[in-house]
Structures are given as C-alpha cells and as structure tokens.
Write a structure and sequence with these properties.
Blueprint (H helix, E strand, L loop, with lengths): L1 H21 L1 H10 L4 H15 L1 H6 L3 H4 L1 H23 L4 H8 L2 H12 L6 H17 L10 H21 L14 H20 L12 E4 L2 E4 H26 L2 H8 L1 H14 L5 H19 L9 E2 L16 E2 L5
Parallel strand pairs: 3-4
Antiparallel strand pairs: 1-2
Length: 335
Amino acid sequence: MHASQGRSAGLGLALASAFAFGGSGVAAKPLIEAGLDPLHVVWLRVTGAALVMLPVAWRHRDLVRSRPVLLLGFGLLAVAGVQACYFAAISRIPVGVALLVEYLAPALVLGWVRFVQRRPVTRAAAVGVVLAVGGLACVVEVWSGLSFDAVGLLLALGAACCQVGYFVLSDPGSGDTAGVEPPHPVGVIAYGLLIGAAVLTVVARPWGMDWSVLGGRTGMNGTEVPAWLLLGWIVLLATVIAYVTGVISVRLLSPAVAGVVACLEAVIATVLAWVLLGEHLAAPQLIGGAMVLIGAFIAQSSTPKAPSGPVASGLGGGGGRDAVEGELSARGAAT
C-alpha cells in the first residue's frame, strides 16, 4: 500500500515536472518578442533560480571540493548552454519544434557511443535513432525546402549537442568515480544554476538589458499579460519547481518510468504553444513529433550500459531534456 502511494505520488510529481518544464518556452517567447534579447531572458531565468537555490547550495557546499568537474559541466552545458541555445532558437522557430529538435539528444548520444567510443549498441537503439531522425525530417518538412528558419534549427540542435556533452562528461569511463557515493542531485542543480548564472552574466551582459520591458505588458496570442508574471513563471515554476519535482519523482519511480513521463514535456510544450501562442503545426509535423519522441525514448532506454553518474535528458529547455538516470535530472529548457 505504501509503495503504491509512493508510486502514485511519483507519477504526479513527474507529470508536474514535465508540465513545468514544458511551459518555459511559452512564457519566455512573449518576453523575447517584447524586446528582450534571448540571452537576457536566459540570464533572468538562471540567475533568479540560482538566488532561490542559494540556501541549498550552502547546505551542499562540500560538492565544490568533491565534484568540481561535474558541477562545471552541469553549469556550462546542461544549464547555460542548453538554455541559451533553446531560448535563442524559440526566438526564430516555434516552441514545439525547438523542443522536438532538442529531444534528438538521446539519439545523438547513441551515435557518440557507436562511432566515437566504438562500443556496440542494440538493434532497438538503432531503430530509435532512425525513428528520431525521420521524425525530425517530418517536423521541419524537408520536402518543402526546409520551411523553418535554418539558424533557429541549428540553435535547437546546439541545445541537443550541449545535452550530449553533459552525457559524455557524466559517463565515468575512466572508472575514477567507482565506489564514490553519488552527489546529492538538488545540490548539483543549485551549483549548476550558480555557475550558469556566472557564465551568462559575462556572456549576456545584463547591464545593457532594457529593464523597462519587465515593468510593462506583453501579448500572448492577443491577450495582454504582465511581463513580471511571465518572469515569475519562468524562474519559479519552469526552473526551481520543475527541477526539484523532477528529482523527487525519480526517487519515487524508476528512471525508466520517469523517462517515459518526461517525454510528455515536448507534447505539453507543443500544446501550450498552440493554445497560448497560436503556434499551429501541420499534421505531418505532429506525426513527426510523435516519431521523435518514440525514437528518443527507445534510444534512451536501449543504451547497452547506463552511466552510473547523472545523465542529461530533454531542460528546457528546454529546454533540457529538461528524465533521470541514477540520481540527477539534468534538463534543458526547454526545456
């Protein structure tokens, strides 16, 4: 009975995390269209969340000494890299398309394993890669001459590549982490946000931002919404609550089950963008999106040997990657 209740709670939290991550692009795009640079929106999101998570970072300050490379990798790739690329992408292409491209990360990881590390992959994993790539071709409508902005697609692919980089960084191939207790996932998230905020401060240069936008109103499919409300949505709901509920859900569920639920993030983002932003996708694109999700899930779940360290999946960013292997959920922004 107790296990059943825990599983139900885990599923509820996993769904809440997917919904929270899925809404990040929907809330961010009106701010970008109102005049904020995508990098400034990312900086606001990451810095705001980092400030909220400061007490957590202090509590787990031992991570700075014990796992500095992991923290740097999470901050640079899974936080700053994924979210910067994703938010820049949604300024040029629909939210759902950007997130679906980002969901190619698990398939790209399989390519890394097979062709760079020269490790065998299962037939099911190869099928997953083919499905994901074929689905992406439908999403971007390659038969019509790449109807979406090519730069936007490359930026979304950049978000996926940042997730792949974190996958690779988190794979303890050298074996030097054997026997070491996994780091606390919420602590890693807190420091990743702090590191990401520091890096983005240098890159985004927020002192040149048009702060007056945050005091005004912005449109969401014809409805005027206070800009500060959207910022609060991005920081608290789509970042802090999304990460924390995702981590807790994996502790109540298996990583495989959490991964299935996390795939709903792209669906939620597409539906929210359709309803709130008026971004409609054609039937072939919706079919292609389903193929990307199915292929990404098969590729993710068919890896011959799951890394024992934390693994990134589709924050943010959406994000990325925005599920979890082992202890940590590392998303983009979608994620």
